[in-house]
Amino acid sequence: MREVMLARGAHKLAADLARVQPGEEVLVVTEYGMASIAERVARAASALGGRVVTAIIPPFRSQGEDFPPGVAAAMREAAVLFMPLAVSMSHTPAVHEARRRGARAVMMSDWTDEMFASPALVETDFAAQAGVVRRLGAILSAGRRFRLTTPRGADLRFESGGRRANELTDIPGPGEIAPVPTIEVNFAPLEGTAEGALVVDASIPFLGVGPLREPITLRVERGFVTKVEGGGEQGKRFREGVAAHNDPNCWNVAEFGIGLNPNATITGRALMDEGVMNTAHVAIGTSRMLGGAVTAAAHYDMVFWEPTLEADGKIVYRGDTILA
After folding, report:
1. Contact in structure between 89 and 64 (CB atoms under 8 Å)
2. Can you list the alpha helix ranges (DSSP code H) found in the chain?
3. CA distances (Å), origin 64, targets 15, 37, 269, 299
4. 309 and 187 inside one domain
5. Domain identity same for 113 and 157
6. By CB neighbour count within 10 A (0-12 exposed, 13-18 middle, 19+ buried), where does 169 fall?
7. Are 108 and 82 in contact (CB under 8 A)?
């Protein structure tokens, strides 16, 4: 029964989200420890008529690396990419170039077998939710000056600089990315504009931090995090993990995003946590893949509950409800 459920999830991933077509070139890029997950996806894509190749590579040591040249070359020729890898590599030059050439990229960072059967994948109507994504994306794209607050005391102001929001429906078109099963709208704040305080109370699904036992407060000045307070041992692990990169750009406020998957739950895995309804997230580090101008050694998202967002002085989103 378990195998049937996992196969059903893999089929939905390949058929409904990636929309693999007969004869399409499909590349599955994975690493040693995730080969069984890659096999499920490869079988599902092959059953749909895709011409599937699986590349197994050594694990990445950090987000700052890129793919081996031979794999990067294969990525450029693929119509569909599936990438079950331990860490997110969506910001790499190889993925960027594959998307520029029209690949539909399905990111499966830190994926587990359980996620094939999770309600966030199998029970979510991604096509129906796409309308919500488009509506909120249009609102954020139209805004210029934003203010984010939460009941925990977050108060962060930032500007978009006219950048368009990224609408992640998980049903990617050519050149688009799908961080399944998260559904979200995000954008890269204009560099140097973020000011205030962010209180993170849900999850930091990186650096071994995970779901938070107590809030972590970040002080932000001129677009950079200048101080991290609280959080106990988890806060210390986060501070030290970011600092270990020895890259000032890792503290750049790189992303603001809102989760829109009604069946996602906080698990400590980025592709689940970032999509949870009634949350938003702010990331630090690299912003270039989101439309920003900063390249850094890493990109770390921080998820928090009950956001209220103002755009140009008007409340447009609160909790899990669009108000504009």
Report:
1. no
2. 2-12, 35-47, 69-77, 93-100, 113-116, 119-122, 126-142, 232-243, 270-273
3. 32, 24, 19, 9
4. yes
5. no
6. buried
7. yes
Cβ–Cβ under 8 Å, residues 223 and 250: no
Distance separating alpha carbons of residues 126 and 21, to the nearest angstrom: 19
The residue from 100, 117, 134 where one domain ends is: 117
Residues 107 and 149 in one domain: no
Record the tokens describing residue 213, joined without a space.
């036992």
- Same domain for 57 and 149? no
Q: What is the pLDDT of residues 101-115, one digit of tens each?
A: 999 999 999 999 999
Q: Same domain for 56 and 135?
A: no
pTM of the model: 0.94
* Average pLDDT of the chain, as a whole number: 96
Q: Which two tokens stand for residue 65?
A: 């690396």
Sheet strand arrangement including 177-178: 51-57, 25-31, 80-83, 104-107, 177-178
Q: How many structural domains compose the chain?
A: 2
| Torsion sign across C-alpha atoms 305, 309, 315, 320 | negative
Residue 269 φ/ψ, nearest 5 degrees: -110, 130
Q: For residues 128 and 108, what is the distance between their CA atoms, to the nearest angstrom?
A: 22
Q: Tell me: do 18 and 39 sit in the same domain.
A: yes
User: What range defines the domain where residue 262 resides?
Assistant: 125-322
Residue 192 gets which letter from DSSP?
T
CB 110 within 8 A of CB 55: no
Q: What distance in Å separates the CA atoms of residue 249 and residue 270, rounded to the nearest whole number? A: 21
DSSP strand pairing (210-211 vs 308-311): unpaired
Q: What is the pLDDT of residues 234-260, one digit of tens each?
A: 999 999 999 999 999 999 999 999 999
Inter-CA distances, 309 with 172, 199, 324, Å: 26, 14, 11
Dihedral sign computed on CA atoms, order 34, 40, 42, 45: negative
Any residues with CB less than 8 A from the CB of 185 and at least 6 apart, and which?
Answer: 133, 136, 137, 140, 165, 166, 167, 168, 257, 258, 260
